[in-house]
Design brief:
Layout (H helix, E strand, L loop, with lengths): L41 H25 L3 H29 L5 H5 L13 H8 L6 H25 L3 H26 L2
Helix pairs in contact: 1-2, 1-6, 5-6
């Protein structure tokens, strides 16, 4: 199953997931699915996804102002910039699907920011993960957890979606989260 989702290096563990001592996705199977009813049209799906990207970007920008460690501050800036690129792609897809010429400011007025990628709030992530926000490895680890959570949420939302175009959009966004996770993994490997 994982190989089919784009994971190249899948290792079977003796004892299965119950024997695993590493990180896992947070929460039960319904976590974050309240953001997706399964009935959304593709453009509604993209608005929710854009909102979660904005929520995460806002969090990263807030951390830029709060942290004292220059390397941590630079990392938060870099991650905020990556979220803009993802938002740009989602916005372009929204314009293509709706065949409208809505400007970005008007589009953003329709977004809601009560959760970030993965369906949790930033406070919930911090409470659960307890990262040292001055530590580059802890920041990367937290970001990897958020991206993994987002990948999982988009996969579950796609499974729930009744609209084939919404399902396709969710799977595409999930694949992008998977790519973000891989980039963060490579960055962690350089430390």
């Amino acid at each position: 199953m994982l190989v089919g989702k784009g994971f190249d290096n899948v290792i079977n563990l003796s004892g299965g997931i119950k024997a695993w001592n590493g990180d896992t996705v947070i929460g039960d199977i319904s976590l974050g699915l309240d953001l997706f009813t399964g009935e959304e049209a593709p453009e509604e799906t993209l608005v929710v996804a854009y909102s979660m990207e904005q929520g995460l970007r806002d969090f990263y920008l807030l951390m830029v102002k709060k942290v004292k460690n220059e390397a941590a501050r630079d990392l938060f800036k870099k991650m905020a910039d990556i979220e803009i690129k993802h938002q740009d792609r989602i916005f372009r897809e929204y314009l293509k699907i709706t065949d409208t010429a809505v400007d970005r400011e008007t589009f953003e007025q329709n977004t809601v920011f009560h959760a970030i990628e993965g369906g949790l709030t930033t406070d919930e992530y911090i409470d659960r993960l307890k990262p040292d926000l001055e530590s580059v490895p802890d920041i990367i680890s937290m970001a990897m957890s958020i991206e993994a959570q987002a990948f999982d949420l988009y996969q579950r939302a796609a499974d729930k979606s009744k609209d084939p175009d919404s399902r396709k959009a969710l799977l595409q966004i999930g694949n992008e989260e998977h790519a973000h996770l891989a980039q963060l993994g490579k960055l962690m490997d350089t430390l």
